[in-house]
Amino acid sequence: MRQVRSGGGMNLLTFLKQNANWLGTGALLAFLSSFGQTYFISIFAGEIRQSFDLSHGAWGGIYTLGTAASAVVMVWAGTLTDQFRVKHLGAATLVLLAISCLLMSQVSAVWMLPVVIFALRLCGQGMASHIASVAMSRWFIATRGKALSLAHLGFSVGEALLPLLIVSLIAIISWQSIWLFAAAITLLCVPALWAMLKTERTPQSIAKSSQSLGMNQRQWTRPQALKHWLFWAMIPALLGPSAFNTAFFFNQVYFAELKGWSHIQLVALFPAYTITSVLAMLGSGWALDKFGTGRLIPWFLLPIVLAFITFSTAYSIGPMILGFFFLALTAGMAITLPNAFWAEFYGTGHLGSIKAMATAVMVLGSALGPGITGFLIDYGVDLETQYIGIAAYFAGATVLMYIGVKKARPLLENL
Asked: Residues in the chain with pLDDT < 70?
């Protein structure tokens, strides 16, 4: 498969036609990662807590334990994208994800929950999304932003359709049966993945042929990146959205109860959130191809500051639309900008290994968020108070990221 370098003047329809298989691969993996994403698992929070008589803190702790373990494994597992074809690694990931969904449908004891959460988070949020992002960042250079935003529409489709569908289905069938359907759908998509990737280059040949270099015109290795100050300046910005966006959706049932709304009232706002995040994702993808990641990424957390202030102060369902709007702006930009950041600043030669660390940080964040909020809820700190503190965290992370990226940009050529 040739590496895509053209695209500055290529119209969208031509781009889609010429790259449908590879973009479709990314979109499929992104969509199927839904079954390991917090917004999907958290839909079943009420049923799981009731089935096993768990408090908010206990369920949050179980979720944190399983997710944190998956973050540790991601440090190693993510490097496999530097060694294996997407065709093989993606298919194996989907098979394991299907098995994880099957196990969730059969959970009969509390001790099984951390194990199943670990499997779902590693295969879904971890590997499926990681493989999709690394593939798009490697396969496309001049059109990297466009490719990332189009392929990651798979995430958006899942976020828009699945919550309303699942909440409706829970009313008529058991939650365990829904997980059986998820397992079957995932398994049936493996042949589709193989069909789309009849032609695919190996990661090794990509690394050799790519001219996408990072700072100081180098291909950075993971040890070199970990010793560089910019990586650590980005950590709070990487950790935050994963931790607290996850925490918000994880606590959606309790949040609705706290505000005096029905769960379906809150879930009904999700499509508006998804539409906005899609527009933000597509817009940021276009903008990063035009202006570069360095000029855009320092500002992507500012909307989420406003989002959590709104969530804290809203006492009717109307203002929540504004909160979801701000949350979606950051969520959409977070899909394209950080993924492109690693390729632009550190090169694509060892992208899988470097991004595996970033993915592990984000997975760790998604473990910490529900655990921290659940613990604080159990100890009497309400979500409204917590959300003000979260907004302050994002403001601080923005300052640190701005300083780091501003210092690093001169190390990139043509900026």
From this structure: 1-10, 200-211, 413-415
CA 54 vs CA 250, 296, 378: distances in Å: 15, 43, 12
Report the C-alpha gap between 100 and 103 in whole angstroms. 5
How many Cβ atoms from other residues are within 10 Å of residue 388's Cβ? 14
Tokens standing for 22?
Answer: 């590879």
What the block records as the tokens of 66 is 């399983």
Return the pLDDT at 413.
Answer: 63
- What's the CA gap between 301 and 175, in Å, rounded? 35
Looking at residue 33, the DSSP 8-state letter turns out to be G
Are the C-beta atoms of residues 305 and 321 closer than 8 Å to each other?
Answer: no
Phi, psi for 141 (deg, rounded to 5): -115, -70
Helix (H, G, I), strand (E, B) or coil at 140: strand
Q: Which residue has the tokens 């959300």?
A: 387
Query: Which residues 6+ apart lie within 8 Å of 260 measured at CB?
Result: none
Cα 128 from chain centroid (whole Å): 10
Count Cα atoms within 13 angstroms, Cβ side, for 277: 28
Residue 149: both structure tokens together: 């935003």
- Contact at 8 Å (CB) between 164 and 268? yes
pLDDT of residue 3: 42
DSSP letters along 289-329, please?
A: HHH-HHHHGGGTTHHHHHHHHHHHH--SHHHHHHHHHHHHH
Q: Strand pairing partners for 140?
A: 4
Nearest to 123 by CA among 92, 147, 146: 92
What pLDDT does 203 receive?
47
- What's the confidence (pLDDT) of residue 10? 58
Burial class from Cβ neighbours inside 10 Å (0-12, 13-18, 19+) for residue 40 reads buried
- Check residue 1 and give its pLDDT: 41
Whether residue 91 contacts residue 190, with contact meaning beta carbons closer than 8 Å, is answered with yes
In angstroms, the CA 129 to CA 155 distance is 9
Q: Check: CB of residue 160 under 8 Å from CB of residue 275.
A: yes
pLDDT in tens, 295-352: 899 999 999 999 999 999 988 888 899 999 999 999 889 888 887 888 888 887 777 7
In sequence order, what are the beta bridge partners of 4? 140
Query: What's the pLDDT at 329?
Result: 95
Q: Are 255 and 315 contacting, i.e. CB atoms less than 8 angstroms apart? A: no
Measure CA 273 to chain center.
15
Q: What is the pLDDT of residue 6?
A: 39
